[in-house]
Amino acid sequence: MAFTIIVVFVGSLMAGFTSDYNGIEPEILEEETVVQNPSQATSPGHVVFGQYISSDNCGHCSKTGGGSDAHHSIKQNHPDEYVYVTYMSASYGDTDTARAGNVAPYNWAWSTGGAPDAYFGDRTDKNQGGANSQYTTYDTLFSSGGGMHSSVNDYGMTAAISQSGSSYNIDITYRYTGSGSAAGNMKLYAALVDKDCTGYSYTSGIPHGYNCWMAWLTSGDTYKSKSSGTGSSFISVAPTATSQTESWSSVPSSVVPGGL
Q: CA triplet 228, 29, 42: central angle to 5 degrees?
């Protein structure tokens, strides 16, 4: 598979839950060998969501052990607890571009120049700029919980995808597994990413990054990519103990290089 679905609940709790494939009787979409990498990060006990700003000409992103290697290392060592998306611009001088993911309805809250830069928990105060060359730049933020809300484990989610002709069929199923009531005013914040960034490459260092943003999945069976789609809002959701599913059948397979 060339890509992953990344989903987040965003609402009154900022980031209630995030995962690519986790939670409710998951359907396995791909088996991936877990390779131990030099990251020294320890388990936070729950899923952490990261947003990584990179660019084609970012040397500190592409150097061995640098920004991209550091994120990938955590993901390889903690595959079920780390979910992140790379916002890949052409130049670190201008990072809030449509190519990187800054298209409506997304509200770009991050830096507009400079890379590598990373934010955790969908929060501006959980930020790490720059990168060392030891694969460990983001270890502390991840291990300490990444700014996720204490209720993160009270939500479950799975995603499934198949290709039908020139379009994808996508289902995202979610439910509330905690006690009491789920948070209110929540949105399903979902993206398609190219797992191996086959559409973009670094000008030096390692060949490519990982999990590059390609499109937002939006309400009404719509999407929004850098240059196509009519999506104008994320889906409002109200998780309960009963599983609920949101579906898409009109996302063209051309949105992600290589398809399934």
A: 100
* Whole-number Å distance between alpha carbons of 65 and 136: 8
Residue whose pair of structure tokens reads 């150097």 in the numeric block: 63
Predicted pLDDT of residue 185: 86
3-state class of 54 per DSSP?
A: strand
Q: Which of 53, 86, 71 is nearest to 194 (CA)?
A: 86
Task: Quickly list DSSP for 159-176.
Answer: EEEEEETTEEEEEEEEEE
* Spatial CA neighbour of 246 closest among 159, 154, 153: 159
Q: Where are the domains of the chain?
A: 3-255
Question: What is d(CA 48, CA 46) in angstroms, rounded to the nearest whole number?
Answer: 7
Secondary element (H or E) of residue 245: strand 244-252
CA 149 to each of CA 22, 23, 141, 142, 224: distance values in angstroms, whole numbers, following the listed order: 17, 17, 14, 13, 28
One-letter amino acid for residue 44 of the chain:
P
pTM score of the predicted model: 0.88
Tokens encoding 233: 């809002």
| pLDDT single digits (tens) 193-206 | 999 998 899 999 99
Residue 109, token pair as written in the block: 């809250």
pLDDT tens digits, 196-234: 998 899 999 999 999 999 999 999 999 999 999 999 999
Where does residue 211 rank: exposed (0-12), middle (13-18), buried (19+ CB within 10 A)?
A: buried
d(CA 50, CA 123): 9
Q: Bridge partners of 133? A: none
Banded pLDDT at 7 (limits 50, 70, 90): low
Q: Is 143 helix (H, G, I), strand (E, B) or coil?
A: helix
Is pLDDT above 80 for 260?
no
